[in-house]
Amino acid sequence: MPTTEERNAREVFTSAARVWLQENVPARWREHRGSLSEKETDEIRHEWDRQLHRGGFAGLSLPKEFGGQGLSMVEEVIFHDLAAQAQAPDGLARIGRILTAPSLIGHGTDEQLARFLPKILNGDEIWCQGFSEPNAGSDLAGVSCRAVKVDGGYLISGRKTWTSFAKMAHRCLLLAQTDPSAPRHKNLTMFLLDMKQPGVNISPIKQASGLTHFAEVQFDDVFVADADRVSTEGSGWKVAMTTLMNERGGVEATSRYVEIRSDMDLLLATLGDRPDLRKQLDELDIRVELVHWQVSKAVDLELDSPDFFRATSILKLLWSELWQETSILGLENMTPETSDHWRLQYLETRASSIYSGSNEIQRNIISERVLGLPR
Ligand SMILES: Cc1cc2nc3c(=O)[nH]c(=O)nc-3n(C[C@H](O)[C@H](O)[C@H](O)COP(=O)(O)OP(=O)(O)OC[C@H]3O[C@@H](n4cnc5c(N)ncnc54)[C@H](O)[C@@H]3O)c2cc1C
């Protein structure tokens, strides 16, 4: 239970955040986000990262000494809630904020934290996640991108695929194989690779929606310094597990909740007076709030605890399937005003059951590690 002091502090935070969001969410985004070009969408989202930082709302739960706000997950959830109500955009710095930052806090050096976190939080550096490869997606331990030791660092060669934000990223959180002779899970190392150097070749992949959010990335002898290796050689799997726990965990789900809540509000605003859809809308609305409730439950639990793992493991399934269903209902009942939005959302949300680990894999994890069922 929060103390009176904590409750008061949260109320002050909530009022300040609400006012700030009212004044800062770009009207163009609020009113036209379904019909903006990809370029304009990216510009607004990137500027939003900077606005959050200027307003003191970037990295709410990250340590103050590295540019965060030193608050807790509770404030993260409060802010995301308010952002959903205010129809705020989601910044482009999400990989850095949600994946790189906690991975570095868990495994990086103070020097790495001091060097990278401030630029993630002020929006200067966009990150991508270089995990998946053409032959290693669900079977992440099978990555074959090689890191060969040379004087002062490593040379990276190999191919990553489905790399979101690659075309604009400054850095990549890259999982590579350092020792092919070592046993599985002990042969990998995590790197913080500079994407703006020769040997990094990015080929955007066009999605069903026509957008190009991700790309295939070929690395040809790309140098990464020893100082940009996370933890020790061979500990990449451990670091990757921290990354994935965050990718499937509370902050990611909270930020998805923002987007789903906003879609749900659009459904209610445009279809709320249709008696034939009432039951379906109510059911979806309840499930949207269930995501929120489940996130709030996880917030009070200790990170890395079995309870936290149990509470968050279901989140990915909840939000991804729900998001697909809201977009189907929107598409089936679109109006001339909402047709652009729902067409795009329908195509975009197809991928939500694949990224952040496919839903089949997530079900395997729940059955084996939460329910204790046999393999
Ligand atoms: C929009 C989008 C963005 C992405 N962004 C990134 C990114 O930024 N960085 C990154 O590294 N990756 C990214 N990915 C890749 C994503 O993590 C992989 O697509 C995902 O892990 C699945 O891997 P795969 O595509 O190789 O499919 P596969 O692993 O080949 O799986 C194919 C199918 O088989 C099923 N399957 C596989 N193994 C099992 C099993 N043991 N039990 C049951 N079913 C199984 C899968 O669920 C899937 O349906 C992104 C993907 C998408 C769609």
From TrEMBL:
Its cofactor is FAD. This is Acyl-CoA dehydrogenase. One of its GO terms (molecular function) is oxidoreductase activity, acting on the CH-CH group of donors. Residues 11-124 form the Acyl-CoA dehydrogenase/oxidase N-terminal domain. GO terms for cellular component: plasma membrane. SUPFAM superfamilies: Acyl-CoA dehydrogenase C-terminal domain-like, Acyl-CoA dehydrogenase NM domain-like. The keyword Oxidoreductase applies. It holds the Pfam family Acyl-CoA_dh_N.
